[in-house]
Specification:
alpha/beta, Quinone Oxidoreductase, Chain A, domain 1, seven-stranded mixed β-sheet, six-stranded parallel β-sheet
Length: 340
């Protein structure tokens, strides 16, 4: 079968031919119908060889949608032919975090398809247990695939600080790309906040407004001042940083109000630098990693009701390398999705 694998440190992934896998006891074989691309893939491929934490080679892709093809011995809970997406946070199942449903915070080390196990950028994929499958019914597979990360990650981030977003509040979304454009839609559905998007370029700012942002400003050194002006000098109640570099972290702290909240979501290698004299008093600054399976179930229902819609650009698996290049160059509107 065809698969897109990371095979050589510091190099681009490759389209290769590998054997179709066979499910072991308790496992499930999926025929992949869609696999979303993510900047996290680029982060993985930027790790140095020394201390690299994952297998090599490794099939990429941690946003899978597919159809159940075969059940391993003892696997129950789904049937052959079911349409599903895959909850990507595979924890140990027995630690206190897993017991509370937060497998993304597994104390014994979470792995994921494409981030520690062979992923979904292939024609078939093994899922470790049916417990990590979420039925999607009649949802479109291409759009449903990215519910697993591009929607789940901002949804979880918003839920953690939703108490700040009351009537008359302001929420800022830095980076209106794969995750940010879904965050804007979720904020419109879940809160009464005025939503301000920050990004670079007229096309991306127009896209943010199309997704539901009330205001959209260029993400630069003047952005925080514009947000302060918009809020009568007070600042935003919550700032979500979906980029995660030092300049966007600095913008977030400069734009947030006293006793507000900053959520660092992006994996850009930087973020908000906090100190008593360098941040608004009593500001809450936190990170947010992925989300829970129960949250993913909620998102599937929201998608079925038309409350969120992930913008996608499709690529056949033969063009997956071009998809990664387009993602890197910022040419993808919404989410790039490979269709085997």
């Amino acid at each position: 079968m065809k698969a897109v694998q990371y095979t050589t440190f510091g190099q681009s992934p490759e389209l290769v031919e590998i054997e179709k896998p066979t499910p072991g006891p308790g496992e499930v074989l999926l025929r992949i119908t869609a696999s979303g691309l993510c900047h996290s893939d680029e982060v993985v491929m930027s790790f140095p060889e020394e201390g690299y934490p994952y297998p090599m080679p490794m099939t990429l892709g941690h946003e899978p949608a597919g159809v159940v093809e075969q059940l391993g011995e003892g696997a129950t809970g789904v049937s052959v032919g079911d349409s599903v997406i895959v909850y990507g946070c595979w924890g140990c199942g027995v630690c206190t975090m897993c017991a509370s449903g937060r497998e993304q915070l597994c104390l014994n080390g979470m792995v994921s398809p494409g981030l520690g196990r062979d992923g979904a950028m292939a024609e078939y994929m093994i899922v470790d247990t049916a417990r990590h499958l979420v039925p999607i019914g009649d949802l479109d597979h291409v759009r449903a695939a990215s519910l697993t990360d591009a929607a789940l990650t901002p949804y979880e981030a918003i839920k953690k600080v939703q108490h700040h977003l009351t009537g008359g509040s302001t929420a800022v979304v830095i980076g209106a790309g794969g995750l940010g454009h879904v965050a804007i839609q979720l904020l419109r559905e879940l809160t009464a906040a005025r939503i301000v998007a920050l990004d670079v370029g007229d096309e991306k700012l127009a896209f943010a407004k199309e997704m539901g942002a009330h205001e959209a400003f260029e993400s630069n050194g003047e952005a925080a001042a514009k947000i302060k002006e918009l809020t009568d000098g007070v600042g935003a109640d919550v700032v979500f940083d979906f980029v995660g570099i030092d300049p966007t972290g600095a913008t977030a702290l400069a734009a947030v109000r006293v006793a507000g909240a900053v959520v660092e979501v992006g994996a850009g290698g930087g973020g908000a630098k906090v100190g008593l004299m360098t941040a608004p008093y009593d500001v809450e600054v936190r990170t947010s990693l992925w989300g829970t399976r129960s949250s993913l179930l909620e998102l599937v229902e929201m998608a079925k009701r038309g409350q969120i819609k992930i913008e996608t650009k499709e690529y056949p698996i033969e063009d997956a390398l071009q998809a990664y290049a387009d993602l890197h160059d910022g040419k993808v509107r919404g989410r790039a999705v490979v269709v085997p």
